[in-house]
Amino acid sequence: MTASSSDLTDRLDFALRAAREAQALILRYYQNADLAVDLKGDQSPVTAADRGAEELIRGLIEQNFA
Question: 45-64: per-residue pLDDT in tens?
Answer without folding.
Answer: 999 999 999 999 999 999 99
